[in-house]
Sequence to fold (231 residues):
Amino acid sequence: MSTTYGEREGKMNMTTAWEILGGKPISGICGYIPDIASLEYKEEYDRIIEKKAENMYRSISQKLASFPSSNQAVKQKVSVTQNVDLTPQETEQLSMYAADEEYVARQKEDIRELTGIFHNKLENQEVDDENKYIDDFKKRFTPQAGINAIYRLKIKNFKKDLIIKVSNAKLDVFYGQSEYSDVKLEMNSEILDQIIAGENTFQRMFMSGKMTSKGDFNLLRALDNLFPFSV
Fold:
């Protein structure tokens, strides 16, 4: 039932989807009801619904047959794996390659070599990521009297957390794990890029909901003073 236009198209789309999934459609009802209250207080509507409900129950319980649908037939044809037609010469050549143990071994070795190359590239990329942001925090560090805290930044898609340890004028920044942290921040790299570029602050990102934080709220507020990127 619809309170706007398109009820017949909606019914048709649902029926088509059900048939493609392998279901058997049963005749249903659809209609336009601008005021839902009218559906509840009109007896003629009640009789239509009850009659349809009886027909649907009878069709399901008695497993009544229905004509096949082209939607299901098309799906079956599309899902069939297509055979690759090879000429006799291509078939013979393929068989020769498959039977040549030296050729097969050489192909496997080539695949292993390519796998190693791409694996090394991925590892190098991860190493580069682990050096990211560390120098930015070290350059902007502005000691604050009485601030002793451990911040843990969980950056989306980074394998390790960025740990920031502040002890008065001493700073330690590295990627790793910390069992304890005074403040835990979660964000994506785009948000942290904006903060480091001075376009935003930790406080504003937290208040806007683009960054989540757990722990001492006062230490969270101190983070923008410890690292004044926006100055």
